């Protein structure tokens, strides 16, 4: 395989053409770069935070919002850098981020994390997230982390103008992402959908995550979450939804008919006891199902390899042993994620003309002894595995299991200082 100017230019056998740099992948498995379609990078500042380790979703959020209100440009930049580095070491080459928390006076958090992604060389799909309903309005977040309706829309449009790259192979694209039906108004959901259509960008939100979500929707809107999304114009192929744990069979069909995307976050759903998303049914209905590591404090380990393995195991548990295969999970981690982000045929696959995002996985050592028949099943069933080499747009960012950047140790020191400050706030 040859990568030229960031794109795959040739695939084949025989003597490779002269190249500025070559990678020997003998005895290794080579896959497309993995695609992470749901994360909250800033949350690694409160990873495994003790007081909420046994909480369900709503209690978990109420515990952590006051700590997260200390977020600023420095902590957004450092947490994004460390989180994206962790992802790259697990074979992730493209990551989204749902940055919905913008404390008053915190600065330009979106630009701060985009700068981190550019420095590392990771392909990045940040979202300008938002919350407009505080506790006094019947929402969950405190007053100091929510924004005004008009401010949200105006800042969203400025973020797209400043950062969104529409060219093929773009390293940064921006989406709009009101946080959830229980933290924004119905008007903001509708207006965000109209704005995204006018700007031709994608939409993202949390959806049908657990039983509390369903109960809130019925009590507040008089309908189930899927009906609510239909009312506000969010059931379309412009949308990808985080979690989607609780749709019924009819709703699965409606989501599939609209070609909606879903970010399946298996570890987070297990830790928060939310349930098991019906991924096999969703895929069969035509939904683009990708994988998300979700934020720390719920999932904690930002390994896309681990999420692929968890997705495989949960599919077996919920839909039968034959339903959950390693190839299915790999497809979710690559082409499924590309579908969520609207980049089919561009990312998440290795074909002539696709981006040069490549991961090389070593299959040696005791954990892979005996893996002969099917290296893809071996890659996901054995392990744990980390990327030997991670290449993004033709540039090596992980080499021999180590991050190429020389900034890691300093970033980890900065992260420790900032995490301690936030958890003591």
What does this structure look like?
There is one protein chain. The chain is 39% helix and 16% strand. By secondary structure, the chain is an alpha/beta fold. The strands form 4 sheets. Strands 3-12-13-14-15 form a 5-stranded antiparallel beta sheet, with helices on one face. It has a 4-stranded parallel beta sheet with strand order 4-5-6-7. α2 packs across α14 and α4 packs parallel to α5. The mean pLDDT is 95.
Task: Please supply descriptive tags for the structure shown above.
single chain, 425 residues, alpha/beta, TIM Barrel, five-stranded antiparallel beta sheet, four-stranded parallel beta sheet, 14 helices, 39% helix, 16% strand
Question: Segments where pLDDT lies below 50 for 5+ residues?
Answer: none
CATH superfamily: Metal-dependent hydrolases
How far apart the termini lie comes to 51 Å
Oligomer: single chain
Average pLDDT figure = 95
The helix-strand sequence is: EEEEHHEHEHEHEHHEHEHHEHHEHEEEH
Tally the structural domains: 1
What's the story with the biggest beta sheet? 5 strands, antiparallel
């Amino acid at each position: 395989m040859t990568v030229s100017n960031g794109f795959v230019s040739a695939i084949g056998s025989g003597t490779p053409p002269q190249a500025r740099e070559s990678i020997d992948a003998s005895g290794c498995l080579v896959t497309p770069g993995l695609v992470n379609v749901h994360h909250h990078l800033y949350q690694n500042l409160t990873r495994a935070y003790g007081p909420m380790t046994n909480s369900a979703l709503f209690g978990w959020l109420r515990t952590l919002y006051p700590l997260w209100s200390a977020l600023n440009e420095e902590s957004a930049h450092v947490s994004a850098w460390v989180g994206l580095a962790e992802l790259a070491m697990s074979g992730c080459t493209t990551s989204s981020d749902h940055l919905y928390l913008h404390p008053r006076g915190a600065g330009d958090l979106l630009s701060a994390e985009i700068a981190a992604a550019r420095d590392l060389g990771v392909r990045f799909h940040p979202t300008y997230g938002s919350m407009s309903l505080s506790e006094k309005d019947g929402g969950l977040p405190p007053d100091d982390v929510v924004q005004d309706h008009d401010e949200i829309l105006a800042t969203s449009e400025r973020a797209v103008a400043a950062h969104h790259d529409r060219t093929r192979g773009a390293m940064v694209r921006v989406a709009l992402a009101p946080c959830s039906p229980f933290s924004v108004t119905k008007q903001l959901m509708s207006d965000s959908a109209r704005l995204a259509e006018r700007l031709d960008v994608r939409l993202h939100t949390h959806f049908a995550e657990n039983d509390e979500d369903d109960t809130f929707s019925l009590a507040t809107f008089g309908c189930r979450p899927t009906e609510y999304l239909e009312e506000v114009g969010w059931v379309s192929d412009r949308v990808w939804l985080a979690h989607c744990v609780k749709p019924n069979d009819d709703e699965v069909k409606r989501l599939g008919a609209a070609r909606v995307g879903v970010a399946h976050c298996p570890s987070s759903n297990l830790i928060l006891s939310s349930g098991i998303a019906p991924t096999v049914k969703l895929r069969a209905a035509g939904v683009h199902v990708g994988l998300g590591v979700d934020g720390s404090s719920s999932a904690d380990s930002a390994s896309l390899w681990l999420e692929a393995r968890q997705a495989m195991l949960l599919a077996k548990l919920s839909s039968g042993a034959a339903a959950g295969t390693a190839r299915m999970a790999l497809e979710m981690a690559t082409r499924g994620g590309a579908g969520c982000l609207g980049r089919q045929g561009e990312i998440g696959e290795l074909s002539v003309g696709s981006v040069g995002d490549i991961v090389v996985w070593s299959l040696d050592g005791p954990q892979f002894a005996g893996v002969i028949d099917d290296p893809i099943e071996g890659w996901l069933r054995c392990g744990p595995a980390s990327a030997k080499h991670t290449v993004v747009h033709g540039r090596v960012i992980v080499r021999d299991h180590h991050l190429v950047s020389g900034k890691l140790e300093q970033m980890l020191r900065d992260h420790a200082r900032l995490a301690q400050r936030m958890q003591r706030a």
